[in-house]
Amino acid sequence: MIIQPGKLLAQINTPDDLKNFSKDQLVQICDELRQFIVDNVSVYGGHFGASLGVVELTVALHYVLNTPDDQLVWDVGHQAYGHKILTGRKEKFHTNRIYGGMSGFPKRKESEYDTFGVGHSSTSISAALGMAVASKYKGLSRKQHVAVIGDGSMTGGMAFEAMNHAGVSDTNMIIILNDNCMSIDPNVGALKDYLTDITTSHTYNKVKDEVWNILGKFSKFGSSAQEIISKVEGAIKSAVLKQSNLFESLNLRYFGPVDGHDVHHLVEVLSDLRDIPGPKILHCVTVKGKGYAPAENGNKTTWHAPGLFDKVTGEIYKKTPTKPQAPKYQDVFGHTLVELAKENDKIMGITPAMPSGSSLNIMMKEMPDRAFDVGIAEQHAVTFSAGLATQGLIPFCNIYSSFMQRAYDQVVHDVALQNLQVVFCLDRAGFAGADGPTHHGAYDIAYFRCIPNMVVTAPMDEEELRNLMFTATKFEGPFSIRYPRGQGVMPEWRTPMREIPIGQGRIIKEGEDVAILTIGHIGNYAVEATEMLVKEGLNPAHYDMRFVKPLDESLLHEVFGKFKKVITVEDGCLMGGFGSAVVEWMMDNGYQAQVKRLGIPDRIVEHGEQIELHRECGFDPEGIAEAVRELAVVTIR
Ligand SMILES: Cc1ncc(C[n+]2csc(CCOP(=O)(O)OP(=O)(O)O)c2C)c(N)n1
């Protein structure tokens, strides 16, 4: 089903087309853009509330700026659907996030209007500043550089590192703070309170309006007038505001707060700011889900990425399964953690801004003094956990595999070097699916297994996850447990927990000729593959290794003593991953076997459903079966 845009939007293929319309027509264009997003996302899925919240901002930015020459950088990029639609991608918007279709995030290779690839948060100010400094170096003094960043992403340390630099950079740069009081879940922390204060303070806003009025009048009168007014404005602001304004204190000129849904005012404000030299910040107040009542008035976390829904009634479609379903791994984590914490008062829970996504919200609700959402701050989450561990507590620090990349030094320096008992639960490990390469949890096995003291594990099912979590509470050192996005395999998952000896794998199926060694949930594909193969007359063995580090050496002696053909399977990068660990062990122990490693190859794998990506990379059930068939007929040269 191809969705037709409204009358005006139909005529817009580039921002130049947008500029042909009068200012008076912008409200209608915003309405049509919003409707087009609602029509598409309700049918094809994707992120939702964030894009609706920046419709006016998106239209105003492309109306005023000279994109793509002026550089527009979106933070995270989940709010950039309007930007994509206005910049030549309206016709293929229905392929958003679908295998082979357009990306759900800005991507340099997709469009010249996507100035910077995103998906992880809090990068926009650094990237835009880099562009601004490059323009200054090249003498391009008219070029503008704009970073659009949400209040949630502003809690990330990198945003502050960048502002600290921007404040002394003397570059043409506008930071737009899109303040909707929400991250995916409600935004947290002292910065949120500060932004609310500044938005509601009457004294502050009165001074600000006066400054703004003078500034607006003068900015049209050429550069010398601008220079004078900029000095006057600077003097007033530094006298009145500096003490009270965080951004002014960082030497960024602060403007706002303005209504982020008043497109006419935004056009005026942005036109003024364009002509004011130097780094500055515009504080826009917006509403997530704006203009679509169920999202605007309902649960904003649900409407962040609601799945498919009936756009008329606002009913989110839920599959009604005919038989009992296995739970999501994240929910097994969330419930099991509460269960463990009830028995052990040392256990604490930590998430950087993903309470719903990780299901730590279950513990936050039941034990609010023992579970923490620390904002989008992965580095802090890890070192904060390390601090808790020094005091004898047992922190379970839950971070998506791809976001953990942010906190690598903290894992090494603050946890592993001091051999602290921190349990890392890496959710979304392996292919993440429609979010694509920015979110694939491809590298964690490789980047964790080389860290001394670190135990690296992955459960094949819910029972194993529970056992590994229980085991981690007994292990006095860093312990990591990786599991994928989505469901496990056990509808009856509340199994009694037991401690697993560190480094002990298990045999799933005896066999001959070929041994399949798997790690984690992907082992279930190997079960399917062996079932297929048995019907064909082949009889491979299957081992679930459970631990990448330490490896189960006695099991490996058994495998390499018996089999000359071995296949390893992992939902992780091949380079340095689980298969590499097995081959290293084989070499070190003087065995010789023909080993085929299946996993994520050394290239960027794009977005699509998890199974589509597994198939593409040859480790879906059929891919595993095929590898066994091939190996079964080939002998070592
Ligand atoms: C480093 C990192 N951690 C976590 C996330 C997951 N994430 C995606 S969007 C989002 C909320 C962003 O909030 P905000 O910047 O305020 O944007 P809004 O959705 O409110 O428009 C989070 C936590 C991420 N993309 N990157």
Automatic annotation (TrEMBL):
Residue positions binding Mg(2+): D151, N180
Pathway: Metabolic intermediate biosynthesis; 1-deoxy-D-xylulose 5-phosphate biosynthesis; 1-deoxy-D-xylulose 5-phosphate from D-glyceraldehyde 3-phosphate and pyruvate: step 1/1
Classification via Gene3D superfamilies: 3.40.50.920, 3.40.50.970
Keyword Metal-binding set for record: yes
The reaction(s) this protein catalyses: D-glyceraldehyde 3-phosphate + pyruvate + H(+) = 1-deoxy-D-xylulose 5-phosphate + CO2
Domain of life: Bacteria
Gene Ontology cellular component terms for the protein in this record: cytosol
Biological processes per GO annotation: isopentenyl diphosphate biosynthetic process, methylerythritol 4-phosphate pathway; terpenoid biosynthetic process; thiamine biosynthetic process
Described function: Catalyzes the acyloin condensation reaction between C atoms 2 and 3 of pyruvate and glyceraldehyde 3-phosphate to yield 1-deoxy-D-xylulose-5-phosphate (DXP).
Protein name per Swiss-Prot or TrEMBL: 1-deoxy-D-xylulose-5-phosphate synthase
Co-factor binding details: Binds 1 thiamine pyrophosphate per subunit. Binds 1 Mg(2+) ion per subunit.
Domain spans labelled Transketolase-like pyrimidine-binding: 327-491
Pfam families with a match to the protein in the record: DXP_synthase_N, Transket_pyr, Transketolase_C
Family, similarity comment: Belongs to the transketolase family. DXPS subfamily.
InterPro entries, sorted: Dxylulose-5-P_synthase (IPR005477), THDP-binding (IPR029061), Transketo_C/PFOR_II (IPR009014), Transketolase-like_Pyr-bd (IPR005475), Transketolase_BS (IPR020826), Transketolase_C (IPR033248), Transketolase_CS (IPR049557)
SMART domains given in the database record: Transket_pyr (SM00861)
Class of enzymatic activity (EC top level): transferase
